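Final report, Chapter 2: Outcomes

The project's central promise was a pipeline that accepts a single protein chain and returns its three-dimensional structure in a standardized token representation, suitable for archiving and comparison. That pipeline is now operational. To close this chapter, we reproduce one record exactly as it appears in the project archive, with the input sequence first and the structure output second.
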Amino acid sequence: INIQDVSVDWLSANEGAFNAVVRADAPGYTAGKQYFEFNLASAYDGRTTLRKPATWTGQRQSPGKVQQASSEKIRAQTQLRQALDDAQGAKLSFDEALDLFARQNDTYHKIFRLQEKEFILDTTLRSATLANDLFNQSQEVFKENIDRQREAAAEALPQMLIAGLAAGGDFTAPGRAAIKSIGSGAMGLVEGIQLAANFAISALDFAAETTKAKLDFYDIPAAERNQAVIESLNALAGQFGDLSSHFDTINQRSRDLDDKQRALTALLAQGERLQAERQIFRQRSAAVIQGFRTRDAAFRIFRNEKLERYKSLFDLASRYSYLAANAYDYETGLLGTIRGKAFVNRIINARALGVVKNGEPQYAGSNTGDPGLSSALAEMKADWDVLKGRLGFNNPDAYGTTASLRTGKERILPGSDGDSNWQDVLQRGRKDNLLEDADVRRYCLQIDTGDGLPVPGIVLTFSTTIAKGMNLFGLPLAPNDGVLDVSSFATKLFGLGVALEGYRGMQDPVANGTAVTGAGGISPVDPTLSYLDPLALSGYPYIYLIPVGTDSMRSPPLGDASVIRTWTVNDVAIPLPFNIGGSDFSTKQLWQSSDSLTEALFAVRKHQAFRPVATTTAFNSSLYTGSGSLQRSQYTNNRLIGRSVWNSQWKLVIPGNRLLNDPKEGLDRFIQSVKDVKLHFITYSYSGN
């Protein structure tokens, strides 16, 4: 027997089944041999059987369930190996019997062919002998008949000659000769008939003997041979039945091994679950013991789906209340004190909503207990209603302030004497790829071209401050410097514009167009000759101005003191409650939060690009509308409305692909042509007193 491939795969849909198949792809396959494939449990592998280490000696007083299950598994493996060995022995016996039967069959056919040749030779010899005997008999009869005829003729012919020669001769001699001839003919006929009868009897006798010999040689031995073959096949069938019975044994042993393996695996899993349950139990017990006095037992006992929903919504409300407190602090600057921080902590520690009536938060008892979120919101609302008038929120002071990066920050002289130094500043800010700057990549909207190519540009970094004797960039105040006064506790942005003085090709409005039109005249259109200028750039460039540092403001001087407060402002978006359009949002979020709404709670709000101008005269000098409210200028950006002008770091980003199609050429022309970068702030300030 050749069991070449013993599979260790267990087919769950055909457990314990075996297939007698010819595996041409099996290792060591030989044509003409039978192969049996047994599907066994995957654990039947002597190399992976669990064994105890050699250092473990002695005997356990009380073996565990795992050890017993492992022993049962090993015994099942041994029984399966024994069943396979028995099946292999039965298969060897069956193959030997089958081979013996084949050899006997071949020997029989060889002997039969030799005996058949002898039988044919003997039959041929007997046929020839019979033919010869019959021929000899016929020859004897014919010979005797001819002798008689010759004797009659010899007797009649002399007598006739004598009668003819002597007139008185015997003329009856011919008659006697004829009678004698007739007698001899009759005797020959009788002998012929006798010869024919002998022929017939000899032929019948030969046929009978031949038929009997054929029966003795062909039919009777064939029947006997068939009976012997049937008996041999019955014996082979019995052996094959015995061999088949081993398959059931192998199947049963395989199932036993699989059951033992499953039992062992189940015990191991049970042990692991028991250890995990014990660990969880210990952790929970420790947590319960540690926080038993501060936990709400009723909440733990009666917690259900509604309480879970309430907790989620409460956490969301608490988070928004905390954001409202931070916004209140950023606008007023009044929560930097010890009591102010305690007020914020009260929101964080609140575990109740409080009282809300018609959507309005209400006071909910004293502050000694837990008045809930509504009380904190109501207190902020009451203070805000008073502070709007007292701090001047309803009556801000608006200004338009222009500051030069060249003279105010870099302290480079105007005119041709400082052009080289100014160009050095621009060259230092030049970047081969703006996307390498993390702040630019994070805050500038759609600056990435999406094709994987670098984005050349210029990044000018500066800071702003509001301090006594200092200009807007924190340097000692000098002539023509832009400055904001410290008497206002908060100075915030309403609009912001940038003027690129010396920029060539800018499509600004005509400087005197308003005056001419107001006088009733028509201002002529300036001629366009930018295409002839080797330093000309795009007529409508776009740039970014992003605050990436910390905002600073003073606290309101309600008495006679004021302190400087700083905030790290994360410009993020509040998610849509339902997102009915199924819109996709940014995947680059500031940080992750619970999925309480349709998107992450804090997603970065990026800054769009805006258009600069070539001269500050393009900005609208009128800050107020007819109704007295602030108005936008045509070339100012309102994206930073509400942010403090005082920031520790700003970045002015000038992408080269917004100047020319060839960004490097555009940057070269920009550096050669632009003489100054001026910032125009439209601000509103609060006195805070």
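Archive annotation: The CA atoms of residues 217 and 587 lie 98 Å apart.
This record, like all others produced under the grant, will remain available to the consortium after the project formally closes.
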